[in-house]
């Protein structure tokens, strides 16, 4: 008799428990952006809750996950986060705001250790990821909601993820995944979704997705009003500033589209009033050409740290790739969320890349040294395009222009070597604009030596392998790729010899060269 009474109660309890594991997402989330993880770097890390919620006074409750202690000062809207134990930590906290729960990751990585997780395959409604090291704990977030264990199926080095039904409510959303082994926190994996389905093509991404951005940076100076007749036949209205006029002319000619550029950053060196009318006209022309124009006097977002290391490594023959790999790893470790730094080829404040090379001073003497300068420039541009983040080429760097002044509107003829650099940059940007692995793929170094740097970016079977050679001779390399599901119809971007068999690639990379193998 007692069991007859208890069984319906048990069944009802199970149903209620299962339902509580489904996500509740409000129509207007109180946390509208993806919350940056809290990285613990000292005994107490202070968090300003205004960085997360517009009205922190509406927070009703904050509950720490295991391994974390909190000190909440409601009057100041600040939160002290303290690690409850020593060592590596992958934890979080739950915040109740306007009747809904939001989860924010809390982690303390070990900067001296690291392992990698990456996408593997999609089977039905399940996303599979794998790890290079046995995983103790997976942290999987859909938007700002940590998925419960009933959405995960875990083995030692692999996890399957099933999305909650609530994921289908959002037109666009993202999964964020971290993992922890005995020594460290992994890299972050970001998976874009549309109505709860994996986005597999670049064209399916949200129009506002920053990862699709490819920038061309220009300075605009205040000049005397020119005779604008040189553009009057091909463009109307004419501009009063000759540099803005040259930009508009290049838009109409398709110069930026041919380069794979979709965004122009203009850095005015003139007063806003003197350029405002011209810039408004330019923005209208940009819309017709399907370009975005950003007018700014700020260099915020430019990753100067990586720029300094990259220019030194690629320009100087005796500087090894180890320095660059360490700098890149440190940058990814310090990123508060997925890394979206801008990698630029140069700006008006710094000397041109080609002038920093060892061979530049000897350019008039030996043609092979001139060839080396442009080869190094192609390496540098290829690096900026293929690492995580947003690439930006400064005006003139697409041809290795050595002068401080820009090239648009110049009447000089470009050499075959300069046109070759431009052609290769166009190919690089086109590949990036078509390949999800270069926008959302993981980043796994395969070989880091003084003269050789190889890494692979992968996204659910799509792969881009990038290999640099700083040596004076062509090298033949054999690389073991991470074991994962992948399509095997590989191609080489720059036409060098390669072969692929059973997760192994053998390829030739020319002196001061780069090759990119992709499927």
Question: Please, could you describe this protein's structure?
Answer:
- With 519 residues, this protein is of the alpha+beta class.
- It folds into 3 domains: 36-202, no CATH class; 206-432, Glycosidases (TIM Barrel), CATH 3.20.20; 436-516, Immunoglobulin-like (Sandwich), CATH 2.60.40.
- Helix content is 25%, strand content 31%.
- It has helices at residues 2-20, 229-232, 242-253, 255-259, 272-288, 304-315, 321-334, 353-356, 367-386, 416-434, 437-440; strands at residues 38-39, 44-48, 59-64, 68-73, 78-83, 89-97, 100-108, 117-123, 126-131, 137-142, 145-146, 152-155, 158-162, 172-180, 189-194, 197-198, 215-220, 263-268, 292-295, 342-344, 390-394, 444-448, 452-459, 462-469, 475-480, 491-492, 498-501, 504-509, 513-518.
- The strands form 7 sheets. It has a 5-stranded antiparallel sheet with strand order 11-10-14-15-16, with no helix packed on it.
- β4 (68-73) and β5 (78-83) form a beta hairpin.
- α3 (242-253) runs parallel beside α5 and α6 runs antiparallel to α9 (367-386).
- The protein is globular and about 65 Å long.
- Mean pLDDT is 85; it is low at 1-20 and 223-236.
């Amino acid at each position: 008799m007692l069991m007859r009474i208890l069984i319906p109660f048990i069944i009802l309890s199970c149903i209620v428990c299962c339902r509580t594991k489904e996500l509740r997402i409000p129509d207007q989330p109180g946390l509208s952006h993806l919350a940056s993880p809290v990285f613990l770097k000292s005994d107490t890390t202070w968090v300003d809750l205004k960085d997360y919620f517009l009205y922190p006074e509406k927070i009703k409750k904050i509950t720490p996950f295991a391994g974390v202690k909190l000190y909440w000062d409601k009057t100041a809207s600040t939160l002290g986060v303290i690690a409850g134990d020593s060592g590596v930590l992958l934890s979080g906290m739950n915040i109740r705001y306007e009747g809904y729960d939001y989860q924010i990751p809390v982690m303390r990585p070990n900067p001296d250790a690291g392992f990698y997780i990456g996408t593997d395959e999609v089977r039905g409604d399940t996303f599979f990821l794998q790890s290079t090291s046995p995983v103790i704990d997976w942290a999987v977030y859909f938007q700002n909601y940590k998925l419960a264990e009933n959405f995960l199926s875990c083995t030692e080095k692999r996890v399957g993820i099933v999305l909650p039904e609530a994921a289908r409510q959002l037109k666009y959303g993202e999964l964020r995944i971290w993992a922890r082994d005995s020594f460290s926190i992994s890299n972050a994996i970001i998976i874009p979704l549309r109505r709860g389905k994996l986005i597999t093509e670049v064209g399916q991404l949200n129009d506002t997705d920053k990862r699709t951005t490819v920038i061309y940076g220009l300075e605009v100076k205040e000049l005397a009003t020119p005779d604008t007749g040189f553009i009057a036949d091909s463009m109307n209205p004419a501009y009063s500033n000759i540099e803005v006029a040259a930009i508009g002319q290049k838009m109409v000619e398709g110069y930026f589209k041919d380069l794979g550029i979709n965004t122009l950053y203009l850095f005015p060196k003139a007063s806003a009033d003197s350029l405002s009318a011209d810039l408004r006209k330019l923005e209208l022309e940009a819309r017709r050409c399907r370009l975005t124009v950003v007018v700014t006097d700020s260099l915020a977002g430019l990753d100067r740290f990586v720029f300094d290391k990259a220019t030194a490594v690629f320009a100087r023959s005796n500087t090894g790739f180890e320095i660059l790999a360490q700098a890149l790893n440190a940058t990814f470790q310090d990123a508060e969320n997925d890394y979206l730094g801008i990698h630029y080829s140069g700006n008006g404040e710094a000397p041109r890349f080609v002038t920093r090379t060892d061979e530049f001073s000897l350019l008039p003497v030996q043609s092979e040294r001139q060839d080396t300068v442009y080869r190094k420039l192609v390496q540098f541009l290829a690096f900026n395009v293929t690492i995580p983040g947003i690439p930006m080429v400064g005006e003139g760097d697409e041809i290795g222009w050595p002068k401080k002044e820009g090239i648009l509107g110049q009447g000089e003829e470009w050499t075959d070597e300069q046109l070759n650099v431009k052609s290769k940059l166009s190919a690089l940007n086109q590949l990036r604009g078509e390949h999800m692995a270069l926008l959302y793929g993981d980043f796994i170094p395969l070989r880091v030596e003084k003269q050789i740097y190889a890494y692979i970016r992968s996204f659910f079977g799509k792969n881009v392998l990038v290999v640099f050679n700083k040596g004076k001779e062509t090298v033949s390399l054999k690389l073991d790729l991470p074991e994962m599901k992948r399509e095997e119809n590989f191609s080489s971007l720059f036409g060098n010899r390669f072969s692929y068999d059973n997760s192994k690639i053998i390829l030739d990379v020319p002196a001061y060269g780069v090759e990119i193998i992709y499927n």
